[in-house]
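Holo prediction. Input below; ligand is S-adenosylmethionine.
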Amino acid sequence: MFSYRHAFHAANHADVLKHITLLATLRHLQQKEPGITLIDTHAGAGLYRLDGDYSQKGAEAADGLFKLLEAADDLANLPEPVQDYLQQIGHFNSSGQARIYPGSPALMARLLRQDARDRLKLFEMHPTDSPVLAGNMAQLALGRAVQVSREDGFEALRKLLPPPASSSGSRRAMVLIDPSYEIKSDYAKVSSSIQDSLKRFATGTYLIWYPIIARPEAHELPRRLRTLANQARRSWLNATLAIGKGQAGDTGLSASGMFLINPPFTLAEQLRTALAMVGPALARGVGKGWQVETGSP
Ligand code: SAM
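Structure of the complex:
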């Protein structure tokens, strides 16, 4: 079960799509005053070295972040979500070289508002990555605003929703569900977890990452999520990024998607602008492309 280590994949094209979407969503939610409960059900290790052995010296980043950086010579002229993403990565790399990659926990932790209004709940089950995550988060010294647990993220989510009310009485939550899908049952768990979450807390913002691969469960997942959103009368957004075929013999992941329920109303346009730059920058060959679809009740 624990053969997956995100360190091997950090900063690949899937992380680029996922983390641009995550940051743009959180930025929008933080335009409103009340605090937010941020939940990352599958958190990973939090920070990754891109020049270390685990990342095979950044092999997957070469088709993701590194290619984007090459294309992005002038930060000021980039679409805002891409600019923000690269700036956030820059905060973890004072040398100017992208050696450290912040995963979703580190990106969200950096954006927590100073007065402890926002809370970050991180779940990671891997026996090695969970203590590494705890250590990485402790370094950020954010105190009780960040909580790391070595628990099943799907189970934990049931206990956390609905989130506690803020001082103004409103309940707000943003949930990232980002499994490795190394076991087939993850697909069904994602759907049942969303179904349950929408019953517990219909107004939460849910972000689900999924791989686009030749597997019926993977193909079915975004359709199922769309059905669940429609049944619950919630708006949704589905963004996909495919970098196309690699060199002969390359069997690695070449496409993935982010499915959101209750996305910010500005997100579709922001992602279209971002992917119009990111898509061509990362494109390799046959099968490349990107799409942003939306639906509302
Ligand atoms: N969200 C991270 C990011 O964007 O930086 C990457 C997460 S990685 C794709 C998936 C992680 O989920 C792996 O580290 C894996 O060990 C962990 N995991 C697998 N099953 C889990 C479960 N049921 N609950 C919590 N973590 C789990």
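The radius of gyration is 18 Å. That is the main takeaway for now.
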